[in-house]
Specification:
Elements: E1 9-15, H1 17-28, E2 36-40, E3 45-52, H2 53-63, H3 67-82, H4 90-107
Parallel strand pairs: 1-3
Antiparallel strand pairs: 2-3
């Protein structure tokens, strides 16, 4: 978690469209499968990130990418949400996606690991 500038643990789960649809319906009132969902927690657990491998595979195939890379992309995206980043507006999207790019570069050893300030709560 040094790259994220926060301490704590993240539970990462790989699942399928059926479970992501059920979770999305229960927690976001959205009746469809999605690629990744994040759930913040309290205490030493920063939160949970749940990824649909089925959706990740479709997205990877459609983009000509490997599944592993898509899974890393989604895990980083879920982590950014746990840290308070969002993409509700274009400005938020630029900040969040820029942060995600830094995390992916750090994860692949192509950038120095540096703490990043978390966004302020709205």
């Amino acid at each position: 978690m040094r790259a994220a500038g926060a301490g704590g643990e993240v539970a990462l789960s790989f699942s399928d469209d059926r479970e992501l649809r059920a979770l999305n319906r229960a927690y976001a009132d959205q009746d469809h499968a999605t690629d990744v969902l994040s759930f913040t927690q309290a205490g030493p657990l920063l939160g949970d990130v749940v990824i649909s491998v089925e959706t990740a595979r479709r997205q990877a195939d459609a983009g000509g990418r490997e599944l592993r890379g898509e899974l890393v992309h989604l895990a980083v995206h879920g982590l950014a949400h746990l840290l308070g980043f969002d993409h509700a507006t274009k400005a938020d999207e630029r900040v969040m996606f820029g942060y995600e790019t830094k995390l992916r570069l750090q994860a692949h050893g192509r950038a120095a690991v540096r703490p990043v300030r978390r966004p302020r709560p709205r």
